[in-house]
What does this fold into?
Amino acid sequence: MKAVNSNLQTILLVEDEPSEIACAHEACALCEPSIRLVVVDDSVEALAWLSRNTEVRNPLPRLILLDLKLPKLSGLAVLRRLRMDASTQDLPIIVFSETCAQSDILLSYQIGANSFVSKPADINQFQELLRELAAYWLQPRQRKLAFATQ
It folds into this structure.
């Protein structure tokens, strides 16, 4: 079994469309060498992958990109299960979909999505999305705290 580079930060992509998966792999390779993209193509496989990693104490992904429309269980059902599980309840989860119905967006946030984004249309948009997500969710952030003085 191939050893995983510990410097890599894992993003779990839950996506069933082969063209979207290929686009994500290519965009990831172009934009961020420190990202390890793990792809599972259905909701049941995603839950099983996360469960296996938890059981053997492997690091969980730093970010999950979750397609809204999935076979077997919907993305919202997966999101609900992840938010109910103590080991995954705090993982950043970005829901994305080709259709951005207001009801889907609101329900995603109510269940616990950290963000809802429109599915990238091409490699350039996917690359830009990955850059933005990596900058926000994967890079250490230091903030200056303003302390009130009396």
In short: The helical segments are 18-31, 43-55, 75-84, 102-111, 123-138. Residues 1-5 have pLDDT under 50 and may be disordered.
